[in-house]
Amino acid sequence: MTHEDYMRKALELARQAAGAGEVPVGCVVVWEDTIVGRGRNHREEDKDALAHAELAAIRNACAAVGSWRLHKAKLYVTLEPCPMCAGAMINARIPEVYYGARDNKAGACGSVLNLFEERFGHKPKLVGGVLEEDCAAILREFFAALRCR
Q: Residue 75 forms beta bridges with which residues?
């Protein structure tokens, strides 16, 4: 599968989040060409500030591979990670991170700051803009509908 194919899987999860009234963010973790972790936002449903798509996908992946070290993983997320999620990626030793839309309010992979450029012991490769328009469109549509309510 291509990077775009994996991002489409993350977009499916983002659509599920939107259907549940959550900010539409979806994430998959790939280990040696197999999706081992999936997550979508659950903050409203769980009443939990930590229920981000990336954290759920990382937890799934750790359980699937039997380790907290995801040193062979690639993470795909529809929205640029926030500081908490970028920190989790660093701590999980994820070597490659791909995101779709930029987050100019909370993005920690270049929009507000880039945690991956700081002096941490692990620096993931970062690729932004994968299916950027599709990822941004689902967010625009969600927030436009929210404003209409």
A: 29, 97
